[in-house]
Structures are given as structure tokens and as C-alpha cells.
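Exam revision sheet. Question 4 asks you to relate a sequence to its structure. Input first:
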Amino acid sequence: MESLNLHQVEQPIRSLATYQDVLTRVTPENMVILTENQAPRFVMMTAVDFERQQKRLATYELLAMLIKSKSGKEYSLADLKREFLSGKD
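Answer key, C-alpha cells:
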């Protein structure tokens, strides 16, 4: 499975006062973690990286459902699609 190999840059939230500078640091290879009192609070990433992450999470969820279906009750493909698309755990 492909690894994102993202780099992190930590910035205090107050740096959003100069958000243009912060935004220039966000690239496909570089996410920015905004901190508050030196603790991580928010993550800024490109829309492309966000979409890639969402697809990867959906893939993991589907894989977990498939593994679950092999360990007990059998599900039809229609059942899997319905459960997957409903967003329920």
C-alpha cells in the first residue's frame, strides 16, 4: 500500500493572522499542524491530500467489513454496499 510520506510543520494558531504565509507552507508533501498552547489543534492539508485520505479510509472500512463477513455471517454484495454507503459502524 502506498505511503503518503507527508512532512509536518507545526505553527501556533496565532500565526493565522498571517494566513497567507501559512497557506504557502501547505503543499501535497507538507501538511501544517496548527497548535494552541503548544498542543496540536488543527491540521491543514491540500484538498488533493484530503480526498486521498478519505478514499484510503473508505478502503480500510470496506476491507474491515469484508474481513468481518468472512468471520461469521455471510453478506451479499448488496448488503455490503448498503452498509458501506450508510456510514454506520
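Marking note for examiners. The first helix runs from residue 19 to 25.
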